[in-house]
Structures are given as C-alpha cells and as structure tokens.
Amino acid sequence: MTVPPSVTPDWSFEREHWRRGHFRVAGVDEAGRGAWAGPVTVAAVILPGSAAEYPFRDSKQLSAAQRERYAQVVREVALAWAVEHAWPDEIDRLNILGATHAAAHRALARLNPAPQALVTDYLKLRVSLPLSAPPRADALSYSVAAASLLAKTERDRVMLELDAQHPGYGFAGHKGYGAPAHRAALHERGVTGAHRRSFAPIRALLSGPASLFGDPD
C-alpha cells in the first residue's frame, strides 16, 4: 500500500476501538528491521483519546530536527509510552520478526496504564487485546505515527553511540543499513559485535572470501 506524502494521520483506526469501549489504544511501531547492524527498536504509545490534532507524522516524512521536536511532544502529551530494543544477539537467536515481536511485547508490558487495544504498522502481534494491523499505519494513525517518532529517534541515538564505539563504519550516517560505505567498511575492517550475523550479507562475509558483497569498488 503506497501512501502519498500529503496524507496526514487521523483517528480512524482508534475510533473503531473507542466505539467498542476500548479507550486506551496503544500505537506500536518499529525502526531498524532492515538494518545490518544495531538493534531493532520498538515503541508503544497511548495518546489521550480526545481526538485532538497533532503534528505527528510518519517519521520517514520528517527531517531529523522535526523528529526530535515531535518526539518530545509525544513524551509530554502521552498517557503512557515505552521504548524497547532487540539487540543483534536476540535478532540472531530469534530471527528479525521474532525479535521485533519480543521487543514489542516488552514495550507493551511497560505501559502504565495498560492498553485496552492496539494499532500497529502491519505487525500482527499475538495478543489477547483487540488489534488493528493495517499496512502503513505509521502514516495513517496518530498513535502509530507517535510510536514511529519515538522508535526512530531512540534508535538513531543508539546508532550514534555505536558510531563512537566502532569508528570507521559510518553508523552515524547510514544507521546500520546496507549503504555502499557500510559495505566497504565491512570489507576493510570486518564484522563487529554490533552486526547481525544471521543477516545474509554479514553471514556471507563471515563465511569466507566468496561473499554476496562482490567487489566494494
């Protein structure tokens, strides 16, 4: 499902739960699922059920400065919020989907007050709560957009820390994704503890000279 950049979030998915008496609706979103390094980060946010308008948007539609500013607004107005990471060892053990689910469950368990229903960005969690999981919910739902802002800004902060711990890999710039500079650094410097060894490009590099990378030049 492609959502035009001009589309703004609203309360449509939350209202479906409100009509059933579930007023504490948590939005859930993640950042970093496709990266080769660093954690996958999941945020859960319960916004006040007042149907107010917010400036929140899918974090991918905003500049870094906007994301930081709006993430602070989320933390100020939310009834409850939580952010959890699944680190590379957990990702390698559970696979990326399993680790994302595990981090989501940890984040939801920390919400106080507890949610009565969930809206996720196509993340079909196994929960006893009523769940809506439409694609691109981060662009369509205020609650999920708020969660996307917390997940993205917190993961970016972690990647800046990893950049300081592992200089030369460019984590501050590409945030652990498969950019050409990241591929080149892996060939030159090798795999770090921040990398997801179960991901095919990293696994191939560890297996020997014949890898999926090809010539970094």
Automatic annotation (TrEMBL):
Manganese or magnesium. Binds 1 divalent metal ion per monomer in the absence of substrate. May bind a second metal ion after substrate binding. Its EC number is 3.1.26.4. Its cofactor is Mn(2+); Mg(2+). A divalent metal cation binds at residues 29-30, 121. InterPro entries: RNase_HII, RNase_HII/HIII, RNase_HII/HIII_dom, RNaseH-like_sf, RNaseH_sf. The keyword Hydrolase applies. Pfam families: RNase_HII. It is found in: Cytoplasm. It catalyses: Endonucleolytic cleavage to 5'-phosphomonoester. Keywords: Cytoplasm, Endonuclease, Hydrolase, Manganese, Metal-binding, Nuclease. It is an enzyme of class 3 (hydrolase). Its main location: cytoplasm. Residues 23-211 form the RNase H type-2 domain. Endonuclease that specifically degrades the RNA of RNA-DNA hybrids. Belongs to the RNase HII family. NCBIfam families: PRK00015.1-3, PRK13926.1. This is Ribonuclease. It comes from Deinococcus caeni. The gene is rnhB.
